[in-house]
Amino acid sequence: MLKEVEAFRHRPIPEDMAWVYLDGFFLKVLREGIGVEREAVYVALGVTPGGQRQVLGFWLLPTESATAWEEVLVSPIGLA
């Protein structure tokens, strides 16, 4: 499964995307041996001119910050 996730995360953005929405939210994550922690989930959603929506990327990072958003924007899917 990890190979499929990595392939998804490193594919190019389709050129027919009219809009890209970026959002972040917090999620409780259960870590083995650590317990439950709150982490930030970042999502990039693309919308075609016809209104079809597609998840372009997602990231699980420790917190929401300017540095974390920079990591999302310069990620391999090429949002920057």
UniProtKB/TrEMBL annotation:
GO BP term, example: DNA transposition
Top-rank lineage group of the source organism: Bacteria
Family the entry assigns: Belongs to the transposase mutator family.
Lineage: Bacteria, Thermotogati, Deinococcota, Deinococci, Thermales
A Pfam family matched in the record: Transposase_mut
Keywords: DNA recombination, DNA-binding, Transposable element, Transposition
MF GO annotations: DNA binding; transposase activity
Organism: Thermus scotoductus (strain ATCC 700910 / SA-01)
Protein name: Mutator family transposase
